[in-house]
């Protein structure tokens, strides 16, 4: 994977972090406090770096989304609705939106039907039903 794609992805997330924090009227310190309540210790400086495209750890995206009352799909730039889990329809709106921001990564497409949840990955076999003991 090319570094340009990774850098553009980081910029999308960093722009969304800053945008969402401002929409909620939160300071960086308030977001750090929310993250610490989730068990994620961080600092204002770290959050500031993340909002400027540096030091973003993909393992923290779900915590950041929770602290900013939005979905990971929103932070990744796949939807404009902070509460929507599914990406916006692939009708070109996402591409135009990112091009307007000078960022044009390829849109992520959902997996074909029947192969599992596109967010969570391939289908996981269902657990066999638990056997219950018959009472006599």
Quick overview:
By secondary structure, this protein is mainly α. 43% of the residues lie in helices and 3% in strands.
CATH level-1 class: Mainly Alpha
Strand content of the residues, in percent?
A: under 5%
Main sheet overview:
2 strands, antiparallel
Q: What's the β-strand tally? A: 2
Average pLDDT for all residues: 76
Shape: globular
What is the helix/strand order?
HHHHHHEE
Question: What does this protein structure show overall?
Answer:
There is one protein chain. With 136 residues, the chain is an all-alpha fold. It has one domain: Orthogonal Bundle (434 Repressor (Amino-terminal Domain)), CATH 1.10.260.40. The chain is 43% helix and 3% strand. The protein contains 6 helices and 2 strands, in the order ααααααββ. It has helices at residues 3-23, 28-37, 44-51, 61-67, 72-75, 93-100, and strands spanning 116-117, 121-122. The protein has a two-stranded antiparallel sheet with strand order 1-2. Helix 2 (28-37) packs across helix 4 (61-67). The longest helix is centred in the N-terminal third of the chain and has 21 residues, at 3-23. It starts with a helix and ends in a 14-residue tail after the last strand.
């Amino acid at each position: 994977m090319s570094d340009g794609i990774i850098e553009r992805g980081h910029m999308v997330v960093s722009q969304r972090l800053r945008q969402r924090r401002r929409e909620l009227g939160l300071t960086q310190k308030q977001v750090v406090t929310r993250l610490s309540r989730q068990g994620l210790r961080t600092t204002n400086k770290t959050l500031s770096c993340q909002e400027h495209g540096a030091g973003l750890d993909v393992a923290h995206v779900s915590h950041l989304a929770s602290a900013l009352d939005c979905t990971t799909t929103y932070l990744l730039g796949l939807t404009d609705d902070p509460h929507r889990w599914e990406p916006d329809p692939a009708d070109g709106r996402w591409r135009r939106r990112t091009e307007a921001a000078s960022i044009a990564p390829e849109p992520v497409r959902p997996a074909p039907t029947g192969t599992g949840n596109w967010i969570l990955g391939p289908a996981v076999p269902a657990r066999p039903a638990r056997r219950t003991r018959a009472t006599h």
